[in-house]
Amino acid sequence: MELTTIVFFALAVFVIWRLRSVLGTRTGTERPPSEIMRDRQAPAPANDSNVVRLDKSADAPVLGVPPEPVSPTERWHGITEPGTPLAAGLDAIATAEGGFDAKGFAEGAKSAYEMIVSAFAAGDRRVLKDLLSREVFEGFVGAIAEREKRGEKVDTTFVSIDKAEIVDAQLRGKVAQVTVRFLSKLITATRDKDGAVIDGAPDKIVDVTDVWTFSREAGTRDPNWKLVATESGQ
Q1: Cα–Cα distances in Å, from 15 out to 87, 147, 151, 158, 226?
Q2: For the whole model, what pTM was predicted?
Q3: How far apart are CA 218 and CA 140, in angstroms?
Q4: Which domain holds residue 224?
Q5: pLDDT tens digits, residue range 192-212?
Q6: Fewer beta carbons within 10 angstroms: which end of the chain, N or C?
């Protein structure tokens, strides 16, 4: 089944030094790009929109209709064990949001993660406006404006997104929240107006961990999710 689409807000991973306190964490593992860089294609949103498909199948789910019965031992296989708080949260969301698929959600989140980090680094306000909540968009715009005022430029290249793991899920009233921990490898460097590197390195790969929480009102026809919280992961 085709799952709901996803539109994300989030904080990018240490792509500007003034935001390092709230964006991602470096693990200290830094290697030359030639060691592990591999060919890859950046995911592109369909029809030039900021919509990230979470499933490749053809049939859209009927929102608000409970999913077909599945054995508790199989329902969230590969995500969590039966009887855990995470399983209970996913069960609640799946009941309120017919057709919700956790694995598809996590895969779609990878695409959104890369899209947001890249857009922030490029200062692409148009893309970010559709992906971020109003409050966070304003914060991003302020950071981008400060960077532009100083004449700085951020170069960010994704090497890989190694993992997108759902670590929490809750249904609060009608609001569904899903938290995903991302493990990725990036090459990022901030340059001043003269082109000198003032943060990061253009020839080093760094391991990054970020934790993002996505939210939407379950059972509505608006298919968009927005991230409502971010933190540095360990």
Answers
A1: 34, 11, 15, 12, 21
A2: 0.71
A3: 27
A4: 17-232
A5: 999 999 999 999 999 999 998
A6: C
